Amino acid sequence: MRERQRVMQDMHDGLGSALTSSLVMLERGELTVPQAATVIRECIDDLRLVVDSLEPTSNDLSTLLGMLRYRMQHRFEAAGVRLRWQMVDLPILPWLEPSLALDLLRLMQEAIANALKHSAATELTLKAQHTDDTIELVVQDDGCGFDLANEKFAGRGIRTMQTRAQRLNARLSIESAKDIGSKISVRLPIVFAHESR
Hints:
This protein is α+β, with helices and mostly antiparallel strands and about 200 residues long. The chain is built from 5 helices and 5 strands, in the order αααβαββαββ.
């Protein structure tokens, strides 16, 4: 019941809000058909992430990342960006319940979507590696980069990623420089410190 309520609230606040505001703007003539198509496409992607997070294998990080890759493949193709997929065998994370799995999927989706939209990259690397106590997920592009000190770039998207990382007890690192590209790293604990939540 708790999980059902969480999903309903999440869909109401996320998908419902985005679709409602877009419909109003479209009816007022403030949104073009291509812009509306983009919003709907993003909403469909988000709905798929919600469904994926509810899979019984939500604590299997390799499976979750594989589903994310499958869901995002059309975005890579549309942007003309080559994906370099560098994965290793990852341990099961017993603490990665559906709500946290969704946070992780959305964080990774945001990092990938930002690179595809803004970086003018030709190649994006999605990499996973782990040590005894952490798993590091990296999204790196070869694009134009941005100035982290510029408030224009440190906007809502980055703040949202930071909030999601906190809920995951993860360390989020963002590196970028003009004409060099960007690297977003998420370090997840293998053992979740529940008492710090």
